[in-house]
Amino acid sequence: MDSKFFKLLLLGGAVRFYFCRTPLAPMIGNRVEFATPLNSHKRMQEGIFLLQSGIDPYLGDLVHESPLILSALSGLFQKYPQFLPIFYIILDICTAALLYAMSLRFVKQKQDQQDKERKEYAKDTEELQFGPLDKLDIPELVIVAYLFSPLTVMSCIGMTSTVISNLFLAFFFYCLVKGMLIPCLLVLAFETVRSFYPIVLIAPLLLVFSRNSVRRGVAIAALFIVSCLIVAVANYFVLNSWNFLDGTLGFIFYFRDLQPNIGLFWYFFTEMFEHFRTMFLITFQLNATVLYLVPLSIKLRKEPLLLATVLVALMAVFRAYPSLGDVGFYLALLPLWKRCWKFMAHGFVVFTFFLVTLSMMGALWHLWIYAGSANANFYFGATLAFSTGQIFLITDLLFAHVKREFCLFNGQKILIDGEEARIVLK
Amino acid sequence: MGLLSDPSISTQSKLVDGLARHVRKVCYALYVAGVAWFFCLALPEFNHGTYLSENALSPGLVYPEIRIDANRLAIQLLEELQRERKDHLSTTPHAWIAAKMNEFGLETHTHNYTLRYPFGGGKEYHGKNIYGILRAPRIASTEGIVFAAPYRAASSVHTDISASVPLLLAFADFARRKNYWAKDLIFLITEQEQLGMQAWLEAYHDGDRELDLSKAYLRPGNLPARAGSLQAALNIEVQDLEIDHVDVRIEGLNGKLPNLDMFNLVQRIMAREGIASGYKQAPRKKRRHSQSHFEQNFRQMLTMLASQSSGVPTGNHGLFHRYRIDALTIAANRRATHATLKGSPGSAAVPLLKAIEGIARSLNNLLERFHQSFFFYVIVSNDRYISIGDYMPALVALVACAFLKAYLTWSTLPATNAELEKAAGWLREHEQEAELEENLEPDKFELPYGSVLIYLTATLLIGFLCNVLPLQQYFLEIPMGAAPLTTSVLSFLSLIGFVLPFVVVLPPGGLELLHVAFLLIYGCALIVIGLLNFALGLFAAVLTVPLVIALETKEENSRSTLRNTIRLATLVMNPMMVVYVIVLAMTFYQFPELPVQKIMLRAATAAMDASAYGLIDSVIYGNWLYFVICTIFLPLWIICWTLSLSKRRDYADYLDFDESPSTSPQPQSKVKTN
Amino acid sequence: MFNIMLVKFVVIFALILASCRVEADNTSVLPEGFVDAAQRSTHTNNWAVLVDASRFWFNYRHVANVLSIYRSVKRLGIPDSQIILMIADDMACNARNPRPGQVYNNANQHINVYGDDVEVDYRGYEVTVENFVRLLTGRTQNGTARSKKLLSDAGSNVLIYLTGHGGDGFLKFQDSEEITSQELADGIQQMWEKKRYNELFFMVDTCQAASLYEKFTSPNVLAVASSLVGEDSLSHHVDPSIGVYMIDRYTYYALEFLEKVQPFSKRTIGEFLQVCPKRVCISTVGVRKDLYPRDPHKVPITDFFGAIRPTRVSTDRINVTLANEDDFIFDKDKMVTKKPFKIVMESQFPSELFK
Questions:
Q1: How far apart are CA A297 and CA A84, in angstroms?
Q2: Where are the domains of chain C?
Q3: Subunits with 3+ C-beta pairs closer than 8 A to C
């Protein structure tokens, strides 16, 4: 099995390497679906150049990458620019490997848990339980879904910094499953200071590590705040100024760049009257962060990893500058819930949605920007449909999980008065 | 929320099962509905009267000031030009045109370009355009309008349109005396039909950009002077100063149209000057009044969509559309021979000159690019149109068939081995008991995603090769014309596609999965093509959807005659065959007197030429038709062909395969392309 | 039951009738002198705010409109310092104008309304709803030039003229924003509360113009609009050599009327209100008089369009004495006298440090 794992990694790398050398790569690097103001490669280059020239990169309105990343990559960018694609490919492969290790561990944990609870399960629910083969299948599916998803491949060849975010997130998931508190906290703090939204992942982290003790929870939260501060201070020492806070977090929160992307922000904020801006800004940011956090955390307190998956997915839908690379990441996590798939009624519909909207996005973008015959509304329609598809997927996953839990203990065939029972959400 | 949180536990839905049983009927009903909707569009209730929505144009508010002396000048220039044409049989009298432009006080420049014709060893052609800029007298040169006239040498096979040059120059002379221009006017005279225009436009927009000259087939060079961003363009093709009617041509590259306001503007001003003008305007004598409104409208719609679907511009204006410049051609046709009306030759061109002046002044009033009115429309008659919102439902209904069928096929995909066997028709009587035993322990069946994906990739690769192979240096160096080369490459690759399903047999469940994938790709492709070029999308849909609906991979419920019919239909639907049939029909229409064999032969050469032109158009002008046919339709056809053959692995083989320990979806097929 | 209802109605009806009679009686009882006094002009100075809210070449007519009124008020004596002219676009110098530097109200080029000296106070993108409301209410930003302020007081008669593209309840400013009738009414109410006008003549030439004055509640406002709600205001004619509509009908006839008015003419606002009958205007001119206490037919037109103040020539000797401090301080005992305090000079440079 191990040899297969390496083969897949190699193949994934080869695919990326091939596309890097086609004219597709620079094209993807300029597509708004993949490269947003936050993660675009060009802006990273600009930031590193400014940093090297001793100019504060955040004084302008172009660079929104965190200073630590800029200074860490500046050597590579300046001296070996020809190896950059390979660097990104390696990062992406690391992400895949981390996801693989994480899912191996996860399935094992699930199986252990199952062994303990097996007596309580209803009969005829074998197909809902993690089977012996899942230990091989699920990690493999995860890694295939990450390595060969066109979304992540394109994101990688476009050299967007989403590749770096995905690596950190994968590391976070890995530590979460492995139960390594300190690295988990640190990487989360780093991502939070870098791109703000991952702050919601503190919820699954607390659920995993606090072990139902409030004191531990408070201590971990305090530790998280301290590590955020440490990361911020570390960033501060790169430039000796706090400008980066406004350039990264402020830029995300205030949504200063209205460039179109696949998200929901840009259209509303271009169309809206200026004096409502503050209100909608807060509404949209609340929607992207805390709105779903509390109910989901209560509902999924026993499944912190599912909670993390759903939060990452919601983040990819509702964040200010989403890119398709984010979508690719959470799609790769879906195979972890393979045993819920039976109940996912909309899988095919969502897939069709994705296919149609993504292909239409290209056409409508062309008509809007190049041909000048369509307009922003057409494009926004496509992105809105895409987001709707994603929301379908997320709710479907959640509901499938609820159904699976129910059926696992109560059996799959429940008849009430001769009719098939229906589950009602209350 | 009901949609999001389906409360039933079981995943089977009665509605889906019911629909799945009648999938063909439902789809055919949708198809008929879509086509019927399309027919209805020709009814006056379904289309709207045109109107001008851009206030700034204010057409027809000015009295034309151009007078008879401009007409006299045009006549004089035409006589001079006729003399020049005797000396320049196959070239353009550049010196004369430049001298005239200089004389009228225009800022005159020439533009040289080179075409590197890649086929048959490679040749180089040189061309030269002349343009004069009239700077806006009281404003910075930030915007411009182009007035273009193609020049055809005396030896050209096309209709003589040399009167356009004198007309353009006469108007330039008039325009220079006016002080109210708010945009620079560019008077452009191109040669070699669309090539010159394409080169000029490329030079205007990208001339100062460093291009990789080794790859470029058209080297546009650079321009010595520009006039800001171009807002609109008017292309003039005048056969003679005495005109019968004006044909307004609008179809541009890849079926793009100028803003409806521009067409309306021209129509309104032509009407004011009393010129018979319109879209596909017929000569006075031939105009049919016997037809009903519906028939006329429908004919108009069809001709417009037909000329749009090829993506080839109907005039030089079409190339402007690529640069987001609204443009159209006014093609003035010569008056038929008659002596009675020739009373006043001295003022024959005045109405046309006045119309050009009116259009120019309206365009001069523009404050931003055309954006108010429609870009997606179909003209049913000169003053009626169908907007995108009205015609799109026809296409959507057709495409919906594909998605509906895909969904239903997916939801009835075999989930267990037993179902699979049933589907494949392999269930034999003596195996029923064994099957029953199996049923107690339904082993879940994994669909062969991997192999299907690889099969899809292989077909797409064939399509990709169609684009790339004919342009490989190795092939280009063969001393062979473009047409035979392209055709042989295409036929070779089609042949591979034809053979592919015989060589590669998909594992069980693969065909069904391939069917779903095919329907999804097909639907997406039609939607995208329909968005970019509605006419092409619609025709492709109308042509292929019935076949796609009929196509079925299950053997149980289809008779062998039906299967064979479908196979035959699929064969005919091969893109190359379709091109041939279309060309054949056109040849038959044009030369009905020839014997059948000769027609077929002639059509064959014409089809070969057509494919070569398609390739050249895609390389030089950026026409998508060749790309679409090769990269989308050919792979889809190969899949379609595979599905219609429905080659299945022998059941015994399948059992052997199933006993092997590997359960993961490993690619089983070895694709042998090239 | 029904009968009782009927009786009630009849009683109520009778009461209403009776009360009306009483009111009618009351009005007739007003002393003659009071009525006359109310009709007398009471202002001390004149201001005009003239606004063209639309830009673009094809809106030439709106600029011609506003310049026509500008020309008239200036000719009738309001100085440029008391005219606030807001014009959103420069038609005279537009590159499309075949007659540079000139704007005409008529295709025959009778009157060049652009004239020799036009002082535009707000131009181009300065013509915004915000600036207009700030101007009316006097809440201009710090540093605003004196020429951009409406420095009117309780004795000012103010003429407000608006033109542009309007709809039911709004007037569009430059295709990007609009002022609503409510905002306008609020602005004028604020002017009244801040004693920024004595009487106000509100004149508007746009489609559905009457909707703009519907929400007014402030006293002493007379309003006239070129069209009623639901009607379009139409342009007068096209100059075929320029290719634009020259001027709007209402303003065209208003200008025709004003051209005949001389500074001491006896023409009244009442005549001016009838300047454009439906026959020539096509739209119905709307007038709102209920807020205006005087009879328009007794108000000279120069009360708003000129700067003629009621002056009385007196041959009597008048004692003019300059005011003393005593005139203002009435209660000398209560005045707090400041305690004397010692003034110490601080040295500018701490030279003692260096000693």
A1: 39
A2: 45-305
A3: B
- Alpha-carbon distances, residue B139 vs B142, B174, C287 (angstroms): 8, 19, 43
Q: Cβ separation of B138 and C95 shorter than 8 Å?
A: yes
| B140 vs C: CB within 8 A | no
Average pLDDT, chain B: 82
- pTM higher than the cut 0.80: yes
Q: How far apart are CA A155 and CA A31, in angstroms?
A: 10
pLDDT digits (tens, 9 = 90+) for A370-398: 888 888 899 999 999 999 999 999 998 99
Kindly list the residues from chain A whose CB atom is less than 8 angstroms away from the CB atom of residue B518.
Answer: none
Q: Do the domain assignments include residue B661?
A: no
Strand partners, B155: none
pLDDT of residue C329: 61
Host domain of residue A247: 2-420
Q: To the nearest whole percent, how much of chain A has pLDDT over 70?
A: 96
Residue B146 lies in a domain: yes
pLDDT recorded at residue A48: 92
Neighboring chains of B (3 or more beta-carbon pairs < 8 A): A, C
B178 contact C CB<8A: yes
pLDDT at B670: 39
* Predicted local distance difference test score (pLDDT) of residue B671: 38
- Any chain B CB within 8 A of the CB of A366? yes
Per-residue confidence band for A343, with pLDDT thresholds at 50, 70 and 90: confident
pLDDT < 50 positions in chain C: 20-28
In a domain, A358, yes or no: yes
> Shortest Cα distance from C167 to chain B (angstroms)?
17
Q: Choosing among A147, A340, A352, A406, which should be mutated to test the B contact, i.e. which has the most B CBs within 10 A?
A: A352
> b or e along B170-194 (b: 16 or more beta carbons within 10 Å of the residue's beta carbon)?
bbbbbbbebebbbbbbbbbbbbbeb
Does the residue A13 lie in any domain? yes
Among B253, B260, B400, B389, smallest CA distance to B321 is for B253
* Domain assignment present for A149: yes
Short-list A216, A227, A223, CA closest to A186: A227
What confidence tier does A132 reach under pLDDT thresholds 50, 70, 90?
Answer: confident
**Domain-embedded: residue A425:** no
Question: Which residues lie across from B147 on neighbouring strands?
Answer: B187, B234
Number of domains in chain B: 1
Give C249-261 pLDDT, tens digit per residue. 889 898 888 888 8
Contact A48, A232 (CB under 8 A): no
- Point out the residue among C95, C97, C243 whose CB comes nearest to the CB of B62: C243
Residue of A nearest to B8 (CA): A422
C236 included as an active-site residue:
no
Q: Both tokens of residue B283? A: 């000569």
Cα torsion A282, A287, A288, A291: sign: positive
* Nearest residue in B to C243, CA atom: B62
Inform me whether the C-beta atom of residue A361 falls under 8 Å from chain B C-beta atoms.
no
* Predicted local distance difference test score (pLDDT) of residue B162: 87
Contact A367 B403 (CB under 8 A): no
| Catalytic residue (choose from C43, C62, C207, C276) | C207
Say if residues C242 and C103 touch (Cβ distance below 8 Å). Answer: no
Q: State pLDDT tens for residues A214-251.
A: 899 999 999 999 999 999 999 999 888 888 899 899 99
C207 is catalytic: yes
Name the percent of chain B lying above pLDDT 70.
Answer: 84
Touching subunits for chain A (3+ Cβ pairs under 8 A): B
Q: Which domain holds residue B219?
A: 56-293+312-376
Measured between CB atoms, does A122 come within 8 Å of chain B?
no
Identify the CATH assignment for C45-305 out of 3.30.70.1560, 3.40.50.1460, 3.20.20.70, 3.40.50.2300: 3.40.50.1460
Structural domain count of chain A: 1
Indicate the burial class of A301 (C-beta count within 10 angstroms; 0-12, 13-18, 19 or more): middle
Does B142 lie at the interface with C, CB-CB under 8 angstroms?
no
